[in-house]
Prior knowledge:
The chain is of the alpha/beta class. It contains twelve helices and seven strands.
Amino acid sequence: MAKLPVIYILLHLENPINLKEPLSEVAIVLPAYNEELTIAATISAFHEQLPHAYILVVNNNSADATEEIANATLQKLGARGAVVTEARQGKGYAVRRAFAEIHADVYVMADADLTYPAERVHDLIAPVMAGTADMVVGDRQSMGHYKNENKRPLHNFGNWLVSKLINKLFSAKLVDIMSGYRAFNRQFVKTYSILVAGFQIETDMSLHALDKRFRIVEIPVEYKDRPAGSFSKLNTFGDGAKVLLTIVKILRFYRPLMFFGWAAILFGMLGLLAAVPVFSDWIAYRFIYHVPLALLAAALELVAVMSLAVGLILDAISYQAKMDFERHLLR
Ligand SMILES: Nc1nc2c(ncn2[C@@H]2O[C@H](COP(=O)(O)OP(=O)(O)O)[C@@H](O)[C@H]2O)c(=O)[nH]1
Ligand SMILES: [Mg+2]
């Protein structure tokens, strides 16, 4: 009995990484919501490529037979894996659940709708395995398939706008910020705090990677539209409004000084505009007749100064958060 701790320490020294996990464990995360048409083929395709990988299907209150089919397919193939049900609706919640639950070395995330090529998974995980990337993105744009296959121009425009902004803010050159086909290493997954509920998850992953200076590699992949009878869970108009909200949020959280600085400039200018008659009164008569405008101008200038102060405070806070994050990585 008394010898147990010694043995443990010896084992621990031999393999300081983790005793319970084999090296290079690959986990494939498949969020699935009403995907009964395609889930079986998706699981089979990934299992065929990576027979030893752990496949986690995160079902989300699907009204169809997704859960049963996924379970049956895993069993039939003799694949390692499980189907879990996440009660809170949304792809973000599904991925959050998967990332919290699985301990692997390499994580792959893909759609359960047969749109991404499973046979390219080797190319996706290779840079992560080699330690040259923290996140690899299957880029649907470069091969031109996505534009041809995806018949929603508004959706494409929204994607383009957000991508432009993010690339500009982070001086990056990412081609496909919203791809759902990705591979990650454990450090990325275990330091990624998922606060988004739904489809913003892909954009959020790219933001996390850029902001925290993780290495991103994009690999062009083929993209097929969903098979007939299978429908996207994305709603163009609802998600179009979300694109705008996303842009505001990105600026507010990732560039607070820029966001509140521009607000300060805007209010400052409006204040000056309101002050024009006030000053001309003073110059002409040495008296102010436009008293309400004088009050308005003063109020606007106060708001401007406050915006700037808020921006500076938030900027300092986000700087501190970055230092904390880096310290956490070193630990
Ligand atoms: N678990 C879960 N998965 C979801 C949810 N919404 C979408 N998905 C899955 O996320 C993947 C991407 O969704 P999809 O509709 O294909 O989006 P698109 O590829 O952008 O058109 C698919 O596998 C969906 O089944 C959800 O609310 N919960
Ligand atoms: Mg899809």
